[in-house]
Design brief:
This protein has about 475 residues and is α+β, with helices and mostly antiparallel strands. The protein has 16 helices and 23 strands. The structure holds glycyl-adenosine-5'-phosphate (GAP). The site of glycyl-adenosine-5'-phosphate has 19 residues, from strand 10, strand 13, strand 16 and helix 12.
Length: about 475
């Protein structure tokens, strides 16, 4: 059984072994903090993405979705403040040459203090760090690192440089001839694609404030401390929604979206005590209020989603840089204004890591006469990569043909998986390991009375049910409200 400390490693290994997530370019020894989703990981990812998209757009009549390009005009990032402000305070260890994000280095030390029983010192250290970060006191942060004798985990020394700021955006060239090329950035957030399209969507969609624009897409950040599997990647996916509102109403909508988004996470079947809010001490350059929804991962409470009251910062700056009016005429108050924005921004990869962490279970099934165990991924059925496995007991006597006809009935309605090879016990275990909620077994009785055995992943209970109506039954079981 994996203990709490190695549970995270066990999940990473499981993801690789069962086709969920692979290191990118693994045959060339991988690319740091970049990952590929395999056959089951990409199904899981798609299901989570679709669930978010539906809950934002289909279930909110005043929210529409767009799909903006990753490449944007370089001035976008001047206007958004990312060229000047999108940086993290970093410190280098002179001996190991390793670079750390200052807050991560201090937080790791605080965690070590807490696990060695020194909770008071840990709380004080984090409090001091927050206060210094809030006023961007980099000299003070270096002194704090020295005062606590924080060491580099590689060199074991405290030979630190000064704290400096590093921009996190990746740049590339647009155009084929290097000398003529324009430097452009890979977007570090999807939000700007929404801001620059604000008027296009508002006018063509005849949208009235308050309204939202949602988007799912890739974002890129040159993260310095890129570790912890898909928690912190250099290429990742965000699911963002910008909610355009009347100035002055931002705190009310901020509270509204905090509540809405927390409910969304809880409705994934995760117990409420696994979540908490964390208010930002040092606000991003665009925000007047901001918090994170944190989930208790096997590596501790960490951010999954950010909710930010972004004021009119982005639209106002795009108006200034583009010289195009970003105003909305509000007939209810008979006024033109630049709308304020509350955004919800959840990482798709972090949501996947949360769902995997919650679903992963190692079970000891040993009895007095037999040692047995299984690893099961208890995904909510609606998110499971495969919904139904169709398993003929043997490869002969016409059982595969019945299995194939069940596949034909079901595969257009939900993702099915057909398998004949190996004992039925081994096949069940493999389906448990990829989180398939239902398996049907076709046996000799099926030929007589047109019934199959359905096996439930979580309880491992089995029951006989008619083949007729199987697709309807599974459809009902995988719906969110079942
Ligand atoms: N538009 C606002 C914004 O980008 P953020 O808090 O920087 O805000 C939002 O990012 C979410 O994106 C985070 O809560 C996290 O889930 C995800 N995210 C950010 N950086 C990430 C990274 N390097 N790897 C994976 N997910 C990341």
């Amino acid at each position: 059984m994996a203990s709490d400390t190695n549970r995270f490693q066990a999940i990473i290994s499981h993801c690789k072994e069962y086709g969920f997530i692979f290191q990118s370019s693994e045959i060339y020894d991988g690319l740091s903090a970049v990952y590929d989703y395999g056959q089951w990981g990409s199904e899981l990812k798609k299901n989570i993405r679709d669930h978010w998209w539906k809950s934002m757009t289909q279930l909110h009549e005043n929210i529409v979705g767009i799909d903006a390009a990753i490449f944007m005009h370089p001035t976008t990032w001047k206007a958004s403040g990312h060229v000047d402000n999108f940086s993290d305070p970093m410190i280098d260890n002179r001996d190991s040459k390793k670079r750390y994000r200052v807050d991560h280095l201090i937080e790791a030390h605080a965690e070590a203090l807490e696990s060695s029983g020194n909770k008071e010192a840990s709380v004080k250290l984090l409090g001091d760090m927050d206060a210094l970060l809030a006023v961007s006191d980099y000299g003070g942060l270096k002194k704090l690192i020295e005062e606590y004798r924080i060491k580099c985990s590689i060199s074991g020394t405290s030979n630190w440089t000064d704290v400096r700021q590093f921009n996190l955006m990746f740049s590339t060239q647009l155009g084929s001839v290097a000398e003529d090329a324009d430097e452009i950035y890979l977007r570090p957030e999807t939000a700007q694609g929404i801001f620059v399209n604000f008027l296009n969507v508002q006018k063509t969609g005849r949208m009235k404030i308050p309204f939202g624009i949602a988007q799912v897409g890739k974002a890129f950040r040159n993260e310095i401390v890129a570790r912890q599997f898909i928690f912190r990647m250099r290429e990742f996916e965000q699911m963002e929604m910008q909610y355009f509102i009347r100035p002055g109403s931002q705190l009310e909508w901020y509270e509204y979206w905090k509540k809405e988004r927390m409910n969304w996470h809880r409705q994934l079947g995760i117990p409420p005590e696994k979540f908490r809010f964390h208010d930002h001490v040092k606000l991003a350059h665009y925000a007047d209020a901001a918090c994170d929804i944190e989930y208790n991962f096997p590596i501790g409470f960490k951010e999954v989603e950010g909710i930010h009251s972004r004021t009119d910062f982005d639209l106002k700056n795009h108006q200034e840089y583009s010289k195009k009016k970003m105003q909305y005429f509000d007939p209810e108050v008979n006024q033109n204004y630049i709308p304020y924005v509350v955004e919800t921004s959840v990482g798709l990869d972090r949501t996947i890591m949360m769902i995997l962490s919650e679903a992963y279970e190692e079970q000891d099934l040993s009895t007095a006469d037999k040692q047995d165990s299984r690893v099961v991924l208890k995904f909510p059925p609606a998110l499971a990569p495969v919904k139904l496995a169709v398993l003929p007991l043997t490869k002969k006597d016409g059982l595969p043909e019945i299995g194939r006809s069940i596949m034909d009935q079901c595969k257009s309605r939900f993702r099915c998986f057909y398998e004949e090879k190996d004992t039925i016990g081994k096949r069940y275990r493999r389906m448990d390991a990829v989180g398939t909620p239902f398996c049907v077994t076709i046996d000799h009785q099926t030929k007589e009375d047109e019934t199959v055995t359905i096996r439930y992943r979580d309880s491992m209970q089995q029951e006989r049910i008619p083949v007729k109506g199987l697709a309807d039954k599974v459809s009902e079981l995988i719906a969110w409200n079942s």
